[in-house]
Amino acid sequence: MNGGLRERLGRLRGQVPSEETGENVITKEDGSEVRVGATAEQHEVSNREQVIANSGQEKIPEGFRRLGIDVVRTELGSFLLRTVRYPFPYHHGVYDLAELASIAGYLSPVAHRQNKEADPQPLNVSRLLFLDTETTGLGVGAGNVPFMIGFGYCESNAFVVEQALIRHPGEEKAMLSYLLGKMGERSHLVTYNGRTFDWPVLVNRFILNGWRKNGTEPAHLDFLHPSRALWRNTLASCRLATVEVERLGFVREDDVPGSLAPTLYFRYLSDGDPEHLRGVFVHNEQDILTLASLSVHFGVLLSERELATHANEAGSEELYRTACWLELHGKSDIAETLFARLAERGDIGDGNWCLALASRYKKTGRHELALPLWQQAAERAEQSAAPKLEAHLELAIYYEHRDKRLDIAIGYSEKALELVRRRAKLVAANAAKHREEKESWQRRLARIREKAARLGERERE
Fold first, then answer.
1. What digits encode the pLDDT tens for the residues 302-360?
2. CA of 455: how far to CAs of 327, 413, 450, in Å?
3. Pair 74, 51: CB distance under 8 Å
4. Is 351 left (phi over 0), alpha (psi -120 to 50) or beta?
5. 251 FRET partner, CA 20 to 30 A, in 326, 391, 394, 425?
6. In this structure, are residues 276 and 265 in contact, taking their beta carbons and an 8 Å threshold?
C-alpha cells in the first residue's frame, strides 16, 4: 500500500462538505431510532479526492434511495454509499454500544498479542475501524472482488456504519480510495476472520488498482481467535451468526446468509434491480454491529466488571477456557479466581477441562488441588461407555510415587485394566493399540504389586 498516498491523505484531510442530503429516521421494533443518510456535517470525508454527495446530477433507482443510498462522486470515479447512524444509547443484543468508549482500552492485551507489537500502545476507540466485506467469491485470490465494503466507527454520540457498493468494476478504485481515507487515522481493523480473509482480499485489490505495499499495514483486532479460544468446545460452531445468538443475545430475522451475497450481487448486475441487494446490505450492517457488540463482550471480561456473574452463569468448560484466555492476556489473578471456582464445582461434564486443570495444578506442584479433580474424572470415566483412562493413570502414579500408598495405586490400576477390557468390547478400536494399552497396564500393575510385596516383607522382618 502506498505510504506516500496515506501521507497525502493526512495532509488533505480538510473535509469538503457535501450538499445536504437530509436524513431518514427508521424506528426499529424495540423503539430505538437509527438515522439513514448523512448530512454534510455527519460525513467525515478523508480522501484526497473531492467527495461530493449526489444532488440530482445522477439519478439512482428508488430502491436504493429507500435504503438511504446515494452516489458519491470523486476524481477517481463514483460509487454508492449508505450511511446509518445509531445514536447512543443503542443496544445490539445485550450490550450498549455506547460502552465501547470506556471498554476499548481493556482490549489492548488482545491487540498486542495478535500483532506482536514491540511497543504496545493503549487502544483508543476513535482509532478502531470495524470492517466487513462482501465479495464475489470465497478465496483470497486476485479474482475475488469485494463488491461491498462495510465499516463502522464510533463518534462521540453515535455508532456509524457506512457501506460502499460498486455497480461495476470501474467504480472499485474510487471505493478503495474512500476506504483508505477512512483508515488514515485508525490504528486497528476490527474484524471476524479479517486478518485471514477480508484484509488479504483488499490488499490484492489495492495492488491491482495501482497501489503498492509500502510502509506499515494496519494492526488487527480479529475476534475469531478469542471466540475459538472460549467457545470451540461449547458452541455448535464459532460462526459469527452462532456467537451473536448464543453469547450476545442477538437474533437476526429473515437474514440473508453471507454465502448468498455473490449470487444476489450477480442478479443485481444482470437486471439492475436494487431489491436483490437489500438483504445483503442488512446482513453486512448487522455483521458490523455484532463486531462492536463482541468488542464490548471481550472488553467486559478483561475489565473484571462482571466476573462474578460470568463465573456463576458460564458452563464449566467455558469457564475453564475463559480463565485460560484471561491468563494468556496478563490477567493471572482473575484466572486463578476462576480456576478456584471451577475446582469447587461438582459437575465436571465430559471431564476434559477437569483433566486440563488438574494437569495445570500438577505442573505447578499443587498436587493437593489436582487430586480431587483426578478423582472426579476417574469416577466419571468408570460410568462412561467409552471411558478415558488419563485420570486413573495420574492417580496410580500419584499414589505409587508421591503418597506411597501402594494399595490405592493397585486399586486404580486394576480398575483401569478392567476398563480397558470393557472398552474393547463396547467400542471398535485398533486391535494393536488395544493390546499395547492392556499390556502397559498389566506391566504397571505387576510392578506395583511386586513393590508392595517387597515392602511387606521388609515390614515383617
1. 998 878 888 888 888 899 999 999 999 999 999 998 998 888 876 666 657 888 899 99
2. 44, 18, 9
3. yes
4. left
5. 326
6. yes
pLDDT in tens, 137-184: 877 677 889 999 999 999 999 999 999 999 999 999 999 999 999 998
For 420, phi then psi, to 5°, come to -60, -45
Grid look-up 511386586 returns: 450
Q: What share of the chain is helix, strand, coil (3-state, %, to 5)?
A: 55, 15, 35
Which grid coordinates belong to 209?
Answer: 488498482
> Do 444 and 420 touch, CB atoms closer than 8 A?
no
Instruction: State the residue for C-alpha cell 483508543.
Output: 124
For residue 457, what pLDDT band results from cuts at 50, 70 and 90?
A: confident
* Residue 74 burial (CB count, 10 A): 21
Distance of alpha carbon 120 from alpha carbon 351, whole angstroms: 38
Burial label for 261, CB within 10 Å (0-12, 13-18, 19+), is buried
For residue 143, which amino acid is it?
A: G
CB 167 within 8 A of CB 157: no
Adjacent-strand bridge partners of 153: 160
Question: Pick from 325, 328, 264: which is nearest to 297 by CA?
Answer: 325
**3-state secondary structure at position 17:** coil
Alpha-carbon separation of residue 297 from 223, 267, 304, 344, 359 (angstroms): 11, 37, 11, 26, 29
Query: Which is it for strands 33-36 and 24-27: parallel, antiparallel or unpaired?
Result: antiparallel
Q: How far apart are CA 309 and CA 300, in angstroms?
A: 11
Residue 115's alpha-carbon distances to 1, 78, 281, in angstroms, are: 18, 34, 30
Cell 436504493 identifies what position? 64
Alpha-carbon distance of 384 to 157, in angstroms, equals 55
The CA R_g of the chain, rounded to the nearest whole Å, is 29
CB 68 within 8 A of CB 24: yes
If you count them, how many residues does the chain have?
461
pTM of the model: 0.81
Q: Would you tell me the crossing angle of helices 198-208 and 172-183 to the nearest 10 degrees? A: 120
Q: Quick one: angle between helices 3-11 and 172-183, nearest 10?
A: 70
Count of beta carbons in the 10 Å neighbourhood of residue 279: 16
Phi, then psi, of 128 in degrees rounded to 5: -100, 135
What cell does 16 get?
469538503
